[in-house]
Fold these 3 entries.
Entry 1:
Amino acid sequence: MDMNGKSALGVLLIVIGGLAVLNVFNINLGWIFGLLLPFILIGFGVVGWMNNKKIIGGVLIAIGGVMLLGKLGGFFMLLLAIGLIAVGVSLFRNKRSY
């Protein structure tokens, strides 16, 4: 199935209608779209970069990366803390008496 204008519009209308139905049942998916947006921007940037649109591709990748760092900052801090703890423990284990 190739995506022409009518089928793209149909998919868009189905998604919007599905979100409206979920909203009626008080199911909010806004946080998922907030997390997916940086990945979408990075994906569009990669596609632009591969199609020799290096400036716009680079800008989209940079914007998506900054947004992603903002969303996943707590996760990166957790990884940093675990890494620091592991280095500290390894320093105690490798302590040699001279």
Entry 2:
Amino acid sequence: MKFTKLVAATALLVSAAALAQTMTDGEVRRIDKEQGKVTLRHGPIANLEMPAMTMVFKVSEAKMLDTIREGDKVKFTAAKVNGSITVTSIEAVK
């Protein structure tokens, strides 16, 4: 019985980690380097249970904003960091 519970708990953790790493499609609408923020029009963000919308995000590292431009199509990950929804990775889609 303990082994079955361990397998089930491990499967849940692996599923949660995979869900947290899922990339979301978006489009850069605005970049605010001074504030370390980016406005994205995005699809649903599964790990945050967030529907598609346009919103302003903090970025975890300001240098990420140097890799994108307004109008770029992007893939990104976001997570709740210190109470704020934050972009943790972002890459332009060519």
Entry 3:
Amino acid sequence: MFELLIVKPIFNLLVLLHAIIPGGNFGLSIIVFTFVIRFLMWPLVKKQLHQTKAMRNLQPEIKKIKKASKGNRQQESMLLMELYKERGINPFSSIGTLVVQLVILIGLFSGLRRVIDDPMAIVTFAYGWVQNLPLLQEIAQNPALFDNTLFGVVDLSRAALGSDGLYMPAMILVIGSAVTQFYQSSQLMPNDKDARGLRQILREASEGKQADASETNAAVGRSMRYFIPVMIFVFTVGFASALSLYWFMSGLVGYWQQSRILSQDETEMEEIGASQKGDVIEGEVIEKSTEQKAKELKAKKAKNKKKSSKSGNKRRKK
């Protein structure tokens, strides 16, 4: 089912591009394929970045909530959820984009593995109407016509580290993939000079100091921008460089997309924020202060407790 619904459509999109792009170069087909995928994901990426930017703008208000809660985790969580609801923010919005990217990557990985194991799979695994395209018919008659290089410079079927040793052109793509992923992740990280590192938080936790959950999550997120590039390097260094080329180009295009959205959508973000109840401008709350909300929440709890107590007294009198 996964092969039918995911792998084959993704693979055939790549093969279709390879068949219609002049020159019949497989590396160029992967580059164009990357652009097509990234631009198809533009609305999803834009929505995710809006949410990410809104979360960054809320950091001053979140700090006020922590201060007003005075260590009361339950009250802090309730105030944070209320704040997110008022601003129309979903803290888990990035998960959807990550899932889509992961599905595409797995589908492309499966398709590329077929072509590397058997170059004729570019014909045999394609849809019937794709097989009828002129270039694929030529490859079917003469498999040597399949150019699986990047402009004749990089053999995309070879790994950076394989049985034949180090292949430097592929290694450059692998390193480029890791570097672009690092900068792409760093681009979305809030610049909080007062933020503590994960090592410091864990050290203080081992000494008996209670760790703040949101601060720990933020520290983990900052650490992931180093961890993910390392994982990409380890994963791609032993696989055919065709996957590294896709990952490298995806990182470059993704970085450009993020830069464009974050730099040119300031007016749109302000309009979206202004339409939300209790907008935040430069970290200042217009509608209500956090301290006031905390007091209201305490008063509401006390009122409910008093009401519950009266009801209990009435039942006992009866």
